[in-house]
Hints:
alpha/beta; seven-stranded parallel beta sheet
Amino acid sequence: MKLLVTGAAGFIGHALILSLCERGDDVVGIDNLNHYYDVGLKHARLQQLETFANFQFVEMDLADQASLEGLFSKSRFDRVLNMAAQAGVRYSLENPRAYIDSNLVGFGNLLECCRHHDIEHLVYASSSSVYGANKSMPFSTADNVDHPVSLYAATKKANELMAHSYSHLYRIPTTGLRFFTVYGPWGRPDMSPILFADAITQGKPIQVFNQGRHKRDFTYIDDIVDGVIRCLDRIPAGNPQWSGMNPDPATSDAPWQIYNIARGEPIELLYYIELMEQALGKTTSKELLPAQPGDVEATYADIDTLVADTGYSPKISIQQGLNQFAGWYMDYYAKK
Length: 336
């Protein structure tokens, strides 16, 4: 297939393109290479991708409607995977405009291009953060998600609603994936694995928010990629049993679908740090701090629908994943 992957220099986009190119798809990747975190890491990811003859990189911002339209007109994509977004919950408290431009304006531009260029399927990244103030565990796509606790989460919920309107009006098949705490080699330096690894290897105290009571459904990057590709290859056709009298929040009579994508196992943050220390062969002190605005205390996914529909089966345990992450971390950052 001829595929467009946005966020090509990002953590998930990079790993996804590696697998797509290895299986023989022709991939065009776009990224605006913004400075939210180390651009050098983004360029290092792209260097890996550019070893594939079936990959092409275009530096572009989704908010640039004219350039995006030109790319679609020239390239004639079959399917689109949108992994681009302004990420991070806490940064959304400081710079909300970045989220509006990227996650709302940019996503709207992408939907318009899909509409006008007969795209077979749009798969896009949502987030577990949409569950917001929900307390019932595990989080289910059957749950109401009308109470986001950060602007980042609100933009991701908006993406799901925007996609539904295009699926309903123009019959564009769309699949939204609510990612749960993705980790692994080539991860973002603003996320906990690298922040913790930095502190452990440098002997600095680790700041642990919410007094260490956070739980997260940590999901290894290879499992995430496997799930995304399974969803890419399964085009939603609409749920014939869907009823507006008792609407299922995860499906529709339109070709629209929402899935949780995770390991399906909550891990306490302090235990996660302990395993990280074991993988790195060092320990350090912990500074227990109050919860931060916009933080969700726990995430834990019900993945039964994804498993039933696609055969998804996460395989990497937290111990295996952290050992592989630690090996990459020590190798990559030792060379810098």
